[in-house]
Amino acid sequence: MSWRIKPLDAIIASAEKKALTRSLGAVQLTLLGVGAIIGTGIFVLTSEAAQKAGPGMMWSFVIAAAVCAVAALCYSELASMVPVSGSAYTYTYSVMGELLAWIVGWALILEYAVAASAVSVGWSGYFIGLLNSWGISLPLAMTAGPYAGGLVNLPAAAIALLITGLLLIGTTESARVNAILVAIKVTALTVFIVLTLPVLKGENFTPFMPNGWMGAGHGAGLGVVGAAASIFFAYVGFDAVSTAAEETKDPQKNVPIGLIGSLLICTVFYILVAAGAIGALGAQPVLGVNGEVLHAGTSAMAAQCQTLVAAGTEPLVCSKEALAHVLRSIGHERVGDMIGVAAFLALPSVILIMLFGQTRIFFVMARDGLLPEFLAKIHPKWKTPHIVTMITGVAVAFFAAFLPVGKLADISNSGTLFAFFMVALSVMILRKRDPHRHRPFKTPLIWVVAPLAMFGTLGLYLNLPTDAKLVLPLWAAIGLAVYFLYGYRKSHVGRGIE
What we know:
By secondary structure, the chain is an all-alpha fold. The protein has helices at residues 8-17, 26-37, 40-43, 45-53, 57-81, 87-96, 98-133, 140-143, 154-169, 171-196, 223-231, 240-243, 251-281, 299-310, 322-329, 333-367, 386-402, 405-433, 446-462, 466-490. The radius of gyration is 22 Å and the shape is globular.
């Protein structure tokens, strides 16, 4: 039956047979985490969060970070015990069996691939804004999908394919490029904080929570918690650190450092950036003609924003390049351009890490026989899983070309929250079932932390917009069909192959 479990020892043994090279240390891992986390969430989704929560989005960052922190502690225990590629998929396989592991792996596709698409769209917004500030304007048909009156978002598709090419060449090369890009991103956010905090206006923080905690009757996905469910995307990626466990030196020590360290650094930055953006420009939601709160990413919102821009005012919630827009609005035109350049250079590092995570999940699922084994082939020269990398890159480019960033982020969050929920559950089950196994990192207060992670992830999932919530069960249904048609019969564990 599909409850068949792949023992931890077997997972580690099969990973060693077809292993990836261990080349990453604690600093590189923390940078990998910071590189994955600081991206579209803060550079782009700040405006979406403002539309949902107003200045209260500062609380949204805190709530999302708290949920990620308890999930990260659960991740750290499992990643230190099972230092192989595969993240939540591998952990679930060893604890709750093949069927649930497959569903988690399938949900991770929703996390990483859709997230890579979302970041590609975010990058495109900065790229187009940068060109506009230099007097170059591209036709709408080429720079936006059908949701915003265009045809196809060509820059978004192009960057996704470019990053795919870089990933094909190899892990160490990618990590080096990533370290440079992380430095650019951190510098850009620091400059933003330094320039905006001195011009804070107290009145911009009132009303602090115009839509209340839960949307106050305005509909699902609004309010501080609704914004937290979306802004959660700003932290997605820290689990890419655990996905790189198989390529990490001394993973028992370095993976927890990378996970917790990157999360702490990013949370401090986010709260300061949010305070700067709100205080300098204001962050009140845009209302419709009848005074109703409009939902971010809808055509009604796009139309209202176009009307406001035509009238000569562009509020924060309407900007596709939020941070650059804030600086331009307070008189730092050229520095705003520089922030645009930083996002233009740095967001690709997030796409790189999302694609990296995605291809490694596919690689491990194929290594287990649940996906066709040719996907696990490693290129003789580049030493990377080239076939699965190319397939993933093309799919990511396709989604980026046609869907809006907020929708993609919310869909990605539904997959991530499910995976985090399963990791927290796995940690508790394993503590009961195998209490004597060596745990190089033990989650502190496990019976408090793991239930908190489960409660938090479920709460955020329930506060996602309805369509994003529905994607997960539909996607899971497709996944189950694929599993029973292919993976169930071909599984190495099912066929007794080590």
